Amino acid sequence: MELTVTNNAIEKMKEIDPSQSYNLLLWYDTDECGCGVNGMPTFRLTKDPKNNNKKVNSNYTMPTYISEQQAVFFSKDMKLDYQGSTFRLISKEGILNPFISTTSIVVEG
Questions:
Q1: Cβ pair 87, 102 in contact under 8 A
Q2: Nearest CA-CA partner of 77 in 94, 62, 63, 61
């Protein structure tokens, strides 16, 4: 799995985490979606990537992970971009999540 993070997204991530001490965790958010297969691809920042997460190749210096169980909900080749006031997660197949608000990003740890 590959994640390309655009320069705009990198700059915004540096504002959110100036110390760059977190890990980026691709996350399939099912809160308030009804069941485990209805959800939205997004991301979190975490200090502890947990054992069941696998490393994602990325051009970004922040270590990037994904839950092995949630990987099925993501594309093999993705891009994280920041435009206006939201992040968006896209792939060659289409848009995975067009509106990831900075206020919706969960910071764990």
A1: yes
A2: 94
pLDDT digits (tens, 9 = 90+) for 55-101: 999 999 999 999 998 899 999 999 999 999 999 999 999 999 999 99
pTM score of the predicted model: 0.88
In terms of DSSP bridges, do strands 94-101 and 86-91 run parallel, antiparallel, or are they unpaired? antiparallel
Pull the structure tokens for residue 84: 């206006």
Going by their DSSP bridges, the two strands 64-67 and 53-55 should be labelled as: antiparallel
In order of their start, the domains of the chain are: 2-108 (2.60.300.12)
Give the Cα separation of 106 and 47 in Å (integer). 12
